[in-house]
Design goal:
The chain is built from 20 helices and four strands. It has helices at about 10, 35-50, 60-75, 80-95, 100-125, 125-150, 165-170, 175-180, 185-205, 210-225, 235-245, 250-255, 260-270, 270-290, 295-315, 345-355, 410-415, 425-435, 455-465, 465-470; strands at about 400-405, 420, 440-445, 445-450. The protein has a four-stranded antiparallel β-sheet with strand order 2-1-3-4. Helix 7 crosses helix 9 and helix 10 (about 210-225) packs antiparallel against helix 15 (about 295-315). The two termini are about 35 Å apart.
């Protein structure tokens, strides 16, 4: 882990522009300021995402945007962060189940934050202790995300330039067609994805190159966010926040003290700056509402690019020189991925298990299968490392073909796109549809016509878990096309 440098009272004045209030203990959070800054921006774009994604918006959803913007403007203030965590947790429960991978990553970060809060309360420790514990969890989550980002893509679909998601995302970039629709570039993009994601992790784990890992990680996700294939800025901003947790504490403080950073932070909080923020947010909200994803991404890129070069310029850890603050030499870097306290390995194990669930024959949604062309359902595997059908669980074996439906719009979508559903997912959605739903389907060659939820009540009682469990246990639609083409929902 990175031990948090102690900020002496004489130094606290340097970080006054970062705080909403003047509590001296808040300045001990200074080495996590850029994480909190980018976390605030993530919350704003998460709100944008909620406007675009077809899910209900609750009061907590809008509170996320307000608290996030406040945190971005005052990164060391406690109150906006506490409100933001509460709103995110509330919204996660109300919105479940949600399909997106960024939602699952966000939920695990929230789980780590709640564990860190309990840890801090039990120890009666400081605010800096809490943020240090959050940093421990967040670094593990980022490394695990990259691990599955590579592992899931080792399959015949992703390696095929005709259908690979690497090519599909690239073709939706706001670049000229002769650049994006180019077979050589698409093949290069497939292999560059593997190389970049693996290299970023290696750079992050080496002290001398950690700032380069952060820079290339931000750059990689900045390019990804430009694709109009899906609404990527939200996910990219969350990953950038997690990258900030790898910043060496003293490098973080150097960046925070950079006069241009303090100047622009002050300008943003001025009446003119707030007016400009309001205008920009209004324009981006409009673009998000209209589904003009490239325009939102370009606006997002203008915010992220200066930060990436700030990391490159000031983010290097000085291995052979005295620390910037020689009056306190006690604070040095420890293991970047610690296994203490006890709850950290528990969180990591749960996180890694979640990513592995498709290979075990369990759920396929929210397993960090990020546009990887992965197919493991119906006794088939297109994965090159795990070519056998998944197991020991059998949730992915039986596939349902919808032949007719009434009262279940999702079934209409599945039928019109010639997709299939895992049998468990089919029963879950039919049970939630209500007593007036009707469906005709084919399962294992047997045709079932005009059935209601009541007709399948026995099957539902036998197979389905309680609804609260099913909110976190769900599946992507199944495309039987070979090789598996790229799609946003599967």
């Amino acid at each position: 882990m990175h031990l948090t440098p102690k900020i002496e009272p004489s130094q606290a004045e340097r970080y006054r522009p970062w705080s909403l209030d003047l509590a001296p203990e808040d300045f001990q959070a200074a080495p996590h300021g850029f994480f909190l800054f980018t976390l605030g921006f993530f919350a704003v774009f998460h709100w944008f995402y909620a406007l675009w994604y077809p899910t209900p918006a609750y009061p907590s959803t809008h509170l996320i945007g307000i608290a996030g913007l406040t945190l971005a403007l005052f990164p060391l203030a406690r109150t906006p962060l506490v409100i933001l965590i509460g709103a995110l947790v509330t919204d996660a429960v109300l919105q479940a189940p949600v399909f997106s991978n960024h939602t699952m990553l966000k939920n695990f970060l929230l789980l780590g934050m709640l564990a860190a809060a309990v840890d801090t309360a039990v120890r009666q420790a400081s605010w800096a202790h809490f943020l240090g514990r959050v940093a421990m969890a967040g670094r593990w989550l980022l490394v695990g995300m990259y691990f599955y980002g590579v592992l899931h893509k080792i399959n015949t679909g992703f390696l095929d330039p005709e259908v690979s998601c690497a090519g599909a995302l690239w073709q939706m970039m706001p670049f000229p067609a002769f650049i994006t629709h180019n077979l050589f570039i698409e093949i290069t993009g497939i292999w560059a994805t593997f190389i970049f994601e693996a290299a970023i992790v290696l750079l992050l784990l080496i002290r001398a190159t950690r700032h380069l890992g952060i820079f290339f990680g931000i750059s990689f996700h900045a390019v990804l966010a430009l694709s109009g294939f899906e609404f990527y800025p939200t996910f990219s901003t969350l990953t950038i926040a997690l990258h900030c947790l790898f910043l060496p504490p003293w490098a973080h403080l150097r960046m925070a003290e950079e006069p241009r950073v303090i100047h622009w932070l002050g300008r943003l909080r001025s009446p003119g700056g707030l007016a400009m923020i309001g205008i920009v947010l209004g324009v981006l909200v409009g673009y998000a509402w209209l589904g003009m994803l490239e325009a939102v991404a370009l606006g997002w890129l203008a915010l992220i690019t200066p930060f990436a070069f700030l990391v490159l310029r000031f983010g290097r850890e000085e291995l052979d020189r005295p620390h910037v603050y020689p009056e306190d030499q006690r604070y040095k870097s420890g293991p970047v991925l610690p296994f203490r306290p006890y709850w950290v390995p528990v969180l990591v194990a749960l996180y890694m298990f979640n990513g592995a669930t498709p290979y075990l024959g369990l759920k396929t949604a929210q397993s960090f299968n990020m546009f990887a062309n992965l197919r493991l359902e119906g006794g088939v595997s297109n994965h090159l490392v795990f070519p056998d059908p998944p197991g020991p669980f059998t949730y992915l074996e039986d596939l349902v073909e919808i032949t007719g439906s009434q009262g279940v719009p999702y079934f209409v979508y599945i039928q019109s796109n010639d997709l299939r559903l895992v049998y468990y997912d089919f029963l879950n959605r039919l049970e939630r549809a209500g007593p007036n739903a009707r469906v005709s389907y084919r399962l294992n060659g047997e045709v079932h016509t005009d059935l209601t939820p009541e007709d399948l009540e026995t099957e539902m009682d036998r197979l389905l878990h309680p609804r609260w469990f099913r909110a976190w246990f769900h599946f992507v639609p199944v495309d039987l096309t070979e090789p598996k083409p790229c799609a946003g929902d599967r």
